[in-house]
Structure formats: C-alpha cells, structure tokens
C-alpha cells in the first residue's frame, strides 16, 4: 500500500469542500453521478466502433446503494474505469488542470457560491463523507485498484480484486451533529428526490433498490414490503424530444412543475439551435409578473444544463435585464460541466447562447404582437414597464432593439398603439411625436397644454408610467420624428399669421407681462402669451430637457439633489381673465393675479401649490 499527500492546491479545494455551507452539500450526488455517466459515455462511444467492447447501450447503468447500518452510500458504474495512474492523476491532483485557476488565492472569499452553483466534481464527496473509497478497474485492464482518503491528509492506493471494469465509490458519511444531519442522505426518498432534481436527464439508467409497501394479496389492510430495482431518472429530457411529439399541455405542465407557477405560461418556445453554438432551450413567458418582479429581490436567469446535467439553477448571464421575465432552461453540449476549466461568466459559448436567446425572445415577442395583439397587450401590461426601463437603461444602448416592442396609450382611444402605428397615422404636416405625462389618460386629456395639439387633430401619446418620459428622452426620436412633450414651451403649432398677431399682442402687453414675471420672480423664467390654450386662462410649460413631470419623478427619488424644471407661464390672450388683466394698472394687483394664475396652473399639473394659505387669502380678497 502506498500513502501519498495531496497537492497543495487540492488540499485547498478539499478544505473548501469540507467547510462549505450545509445547504450545498447535497450536490455531491449529482457530481458523482455525472462522473459515472461520463465514464459510461466514454465506453459507450468506444463500443460503437470497437466490437470487442461487447456492450449495448442497454447494458450500461449507474447504481446507488444506501446502507443505513454501515452509513454508506455507494455509487457504481460499469463505465471505462481508471488505471492506477489515472486514479492517482485524476483524484490526487484535482487542481493540476487549474481548478482553482479561476480564483486567485486572495479571492477565495465566497467559495460557497462556486460550490453551490457549479460543483467541483469528485471532491464534493468530502462535503458529506469522512472517508471515500474508490474501487476502479480500467476497461481492458487485468488489475483493479482501491484508492482511499479521509480528506486533507492524503490518500492510499493498493491493488484489489475486481470482477469487471468500472468504478465503485463508497462514501462513509460524516456523523450527524446538532446542526447538520447527514443520515438523511441514506433515506430512499431523499436519494430519489436528489436524482429527480439534479440528474433526471442523465441518459443512462440510475438504479436503486427501492422498497414499496403494497397490500398483501387477498387482504384489505395488511401490507407487505416489496423490493424492486427501480430506475430513478426519466432519462429523456423534454427539451431533447422532438417538437412534434409534444403537446401544449406537455410544455405547460413541465413549466408549472418545474418553475412552480399555479398558472400556465402565456407563451413558450422550444428551441433546437445548431450553428456557432449548439443548444436546446425551453423558454417561457409567465402569465403574470411574479409578486416580487419589480423589486430588488427578483432574480433573473435560466436553468443551465450541460448535456442533461443541471449545473446552475439560475444563470443570470443568459438574459438581458429587459427580458428578465423569461423563465426556462438551456442545455448545451458545448458547456463544460465543471467550472474548473473556465469561469462560466467569461465563457464564450455562454455568451453566444445568450445572444441567440435574446434574438429568439425578441422575434417571439414581435411575432406575438403581430399575430395575437390582445395577448401581446396582456403581456405588455405585465412586463412592458421592464421593456421601457430597458430603453432607458445603459444610456439608451438597447433602444433600437426594443422600441418596436413598446406600446403606449394615446388620445386615439382605449387601445394602446405602437410607435410605428403612431407615425403611420400622422397627418402630413405633423412633424413631431407628441406626448403628455400624467397620472391617468383622463388627467392628461384634461391638460390645458394638450388642447391646441388635439384641436389640430394630432394624436398624443399618454405617458402614465413614470419611466415613459425618461424612455422617450432616451430615444430622442423614432423614425426621425422627435418626441415632444405638449408641455414644452416651444410647441410650434400656429400659422405664420397667428404667430404675427400674437407677437403684436405680446408687444402691446409688454409691461403687463413684465410686471407678472416680477411678481413670480424665481418661480418662472418667463410669462408670455400663447396660442395653444382654448378654454383655460393659463398653463405652465417648460424650457429645456426637464419637464415638470420629470421633475416630479426625480424629486420623489430618495436623493438629496433636487432638480427644477425651467418653467414658463403661458397666458391665453382670448380668455376673459386676460381681458381684465390688460385693463389693470395697479402693479400690486397684477402681481396677485399672476400668483393666482400660477398656482392654478400648478394645480392643473397635479403639483402641490407652494403656499396654500396665501393662495386661499388671495382668492378671498379678489372675490
Ligand atoms: P471532472 O469530472 O470535471 O474532470 P472530477 O474531479 O469530478 O472532475 O473528476 C476528475 C476525473 O476523474 C474525471 O475527469 C475522470 O477522468 C475521472 N473520474 C471521476 N469519476 C470517475 C468514474 N466514475 N469513472 C471513471 N473516471 C472517473
């Protein structure tokens, strides 16, 4: 018998394993099963070209045995096996291939995450076992070997007799402590559950002797136990099946079971992709946004499989934030099961898959919009806000990608419109895309600033979500039509004659407007006459990029820095109030009128008035 020490790096990894947090420990079974499956794969492939192997696909299996008395779990495969050198090399020097290469020594902080998400192969056995014994005989070899280790100290290796090729791994479980009970891994239901959860799709049977309780023949309440050798995994994953074999129910049931949703999904897409990267995917759009969808707690991601073995519960890198509502899974042969070779985030294949999935989601949404508008509107109700955030985020980087997926309510009616539909319906002389922000379509429709635009027969997009206007500002324009808030000061709706007439009136009332402006010093940049108003005496508009609505949204955010829109008070020269004003000479009285009109306009905007007491006094005084 030879006793050897582990390499330094292996020691470190072992140590990480042994001290990993308890909830991650269950993955040891997945890791060992997947190694067994790989070993069978190797021999199976060989059998395809080498008759001397003498085995068919059906001859291969993985077997699990749990012995409660001995506290052992044994995983046996009849795969390719390992020679003495391979045992030493593969199990003794795990880090030789650079397992820890992805983490520098000083970064070994959050190792629990690595282990939980990726697993680290064979060594995970030490998360649950105090001693691991590996019996292995390589295919075609005469001699079998027994490798044994109790962890950090090293391992022993010696010859052993074995009947046939393959590998048998015996785990002697650690003792239960107050915090951690390892005995549970000996329970049949626990093993069945773990196989179902992590290894259901391994393509060779995973078998175990299972005890069933059944009614004794001829009795009504006497039971007997029967032990059968059961296959625990279903072996063929849904996503690998042919689309023509599957029904909508198959897809929906799978979704509801797997992703625990009481409602069937709104839409699904089954992808078999071959090309730069080969993968299968099942993508789903839930019917409803999860309760925590628009919170920080929500975590995006798709389940990630490498050749049928789940390697990550939620791989966030597979989805851009604006498609974070997509659920589902991806299975690829091009991904390595073991993170040891490359950090997954930086994996080129993974990036290609993510790109391809993004494309698929986009075209599916576009298709839904075209073929089933009602459904798309429901989708947009649930997740449209996320798309709008997507337009706004990253300095508008994704706006091209997303702009045609957006819907907005508008003055046209109850049905939301796309930007393309808006532009298509524009009268020839209309140059810009008009929008207005407010609490509700009703409140917006009643805005004095909207009057003139509507009177022209132009459609107004109703921005009722706080993000809408920010998204529009980020887009700047759509099909070369600039987005324009109806509350912007320089709306150009008048004819040349109207403009001229207004200028003259403005000139005549110059001193009046100046007096008003003085009374409102610091509150508005300017007081001016305007053609845009019909029934209202005055309204507030803004100059520059920041509108009053945006000011409201930004100032509601928890930051110290408050912003202020540059406001203009526009007066309707056709209104009786203005007629009265223009007859006044008393500067003080003009100032009071100005304040009243300003406050009134604020109220119409849904803004708080600055000094309610003063406002109330002014009204009484003038009444
Ligand atoms: P990985 O599987 O990612 O290479 P592991 O630490 O799980 O990392 O295993 C190291 C190596 O040991 C494997 O690559 C394989 O060559 C060998 N090995 C592990 N388990 C078995 C097994 N059951 N049969 C044959 N070889 C195995």
How does this structure look, described?
With 623 residues, the protein is of the alpha+beta class. It is 36% helix and 22% strand. It has 19 helices and 23 strands. The strands form four sheets. The protein has a nine-stranded mixed beta sheet with strand order 1-6-5-4-7-3-2-8-9, with helices on one face. A six-stranded mixed beta sheet has the order 16-15-18-17-20-19. The longest helix has 24 residues, at 348-371. The structure holds adenosine-5'-diphosphate (ADP). Residues 31, 35-36, 39, 77, 79-82, 90-91, 94, 121-123, 167, 338, 340 line the site of adenosine-5'-diphosphate (ADP).
Give me some keywords for this one.
nine-stranded mixed beta sheet, alpha+beta, 623 residues, 23 strands, 22% strand
Entry summary:
With 623 residues, the protein is α+β, with helices and mostly antiparallel strands.
- Find the structural class using helix and strand composition: alpha+beta
* Helical content class: 25-40%
Label the overall shape: elongated
Attached small molecules: adenosine-5'-diphosphate
User: What share of the residues does DSSP label as strand, in percent?
Assistant: 15-25%
Give the N-to-C terminal Cα separation: 108 Å
In terms of per-residue confidence, which ranges show pLDDT below 50 for 5 or more consecutive residues?
Answer: 95-119
Strand tally, please? 23
Largest sheet: 9 strands, mixed
Strand order of the largest sheet: 1-6-5-4-7-3-2-8-9
């Amino acid at each position: 018998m030879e006793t050897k020490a582990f390499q330094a790096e292996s020691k470190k990894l072992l140590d990480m394993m042994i001290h990993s947090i308890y909830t991650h420990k269950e993955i040891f079974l997945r890791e060992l099963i997947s190694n067994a499956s790989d070993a069978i794969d190797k021999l199976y492939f060989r059998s395809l070209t080498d008759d001397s192997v003498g085995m068919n696909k059906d001859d291969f299996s993985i077997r699990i045995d749990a012995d409660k008395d001995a506290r052992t779990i044994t995983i046996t495969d009849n795969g390719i096996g390992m020679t003495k050198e391979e045992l030493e090399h593969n199990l003794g020097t795990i880090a030789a291939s650079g397992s820890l290469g992805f983490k520098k020594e000083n970064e070994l902080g959050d190792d629990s995450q690595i282990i939980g998400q990726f697993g680290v192969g064979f060594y995970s056995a030490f998360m649950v076992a105090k001693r691991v014994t590996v019996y292995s005989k390589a295919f075609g070899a005469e001699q079998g070997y027994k490798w044994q280790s109790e962890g950090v100290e090293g391992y022993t290796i010696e010859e052993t007799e074995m009947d046939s090729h393959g590998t048998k791994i015996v785990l002697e479980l650690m003792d239960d402590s107050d915090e951690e009970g390892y005995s549970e891994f000996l329970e049949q239901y626990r093993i069945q559950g773990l196989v179902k959860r992590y290894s259901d799709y391994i393509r060779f049977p995973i078998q175990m002797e299972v005890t069933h309780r059944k009614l004794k023949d001829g009795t009504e309440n006497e039971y007997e136990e029967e032990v059968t050798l059961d296959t625990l995994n279903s072996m063929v994953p849904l996503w690998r099946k042919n689309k023509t074999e599957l029904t909508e129910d198959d897809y929906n049931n799978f979704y509801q079971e797997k992703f625990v949703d009481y409602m069937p999904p709104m839409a699904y897409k089954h992808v078999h992709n071959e090309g730069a990267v080969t993968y299968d995917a099942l993508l789903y759009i839930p019917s409803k946004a999860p309760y925590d969808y628009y919170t920080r707690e929500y975590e995006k991601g798709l389940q990630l499989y490498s050749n049928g073995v789940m390697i990550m519960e939620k791989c966030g890198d597979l989805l851009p934030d604006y498609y974070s509502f997509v659920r589902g899974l991806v299975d690829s042969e091009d991904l390595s099961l073991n993170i040891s070779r490359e950090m997954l985030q930086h994996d080129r294949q993974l990036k290609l898959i993510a790109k391809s999935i993004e494309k698929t989601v986009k075209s599916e949404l576009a298709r839904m919009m075209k073929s089933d508008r009602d459904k798309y509107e429901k989708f947009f109700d649930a997740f449209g806000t996320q798309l709008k955030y997507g337009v706004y985020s990253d300095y508008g980087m994704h706006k091209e990608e997303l702009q045609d997926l957006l819907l907005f309510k508008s003055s046209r009616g109850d049905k939301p419109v796309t930007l393309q539909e808006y532009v298509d319906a524009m009268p020839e002389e209309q140059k810009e895309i008009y929008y207005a922000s407010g609490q509700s379509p009703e409140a917006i429709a009643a805005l004095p600033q909207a009057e003139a635009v509507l009177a022209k027969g132009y459609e107004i997009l109703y921005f009722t979500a706080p993000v809408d206007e920010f998204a529009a500002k980020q887009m700047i324009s759509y099909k070369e039509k600039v987005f324009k808030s109806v509350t912007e000061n320089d709306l150009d709706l008048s004819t040349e004659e109207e403009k001229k007439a207004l200028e003259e009136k403005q000139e005549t009332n110059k001193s009046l407007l100046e007096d008003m402006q003085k009374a409102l010093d610091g509150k508005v940049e300017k007081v001016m006459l305007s053609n845009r108003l019909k029934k209202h005496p005055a309204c507030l508009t803004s100059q520059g990029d920041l509108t009053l609505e945006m000011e409201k949204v930004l100032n509601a955010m928890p930051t110290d820095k408050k912003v202020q829109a540059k406001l203009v008070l526009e007066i309707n020269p056709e209104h009786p109030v203005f007629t009265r004003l223009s007859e006044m000479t008393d500067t003080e009285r003009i100032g009071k009128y100005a304040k009243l009109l300003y406050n009134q306009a604020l109220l119409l905007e849904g803004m708080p008035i600055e000094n309610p007491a003063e406002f109330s006094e002014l009204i009484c005084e003038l009444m």
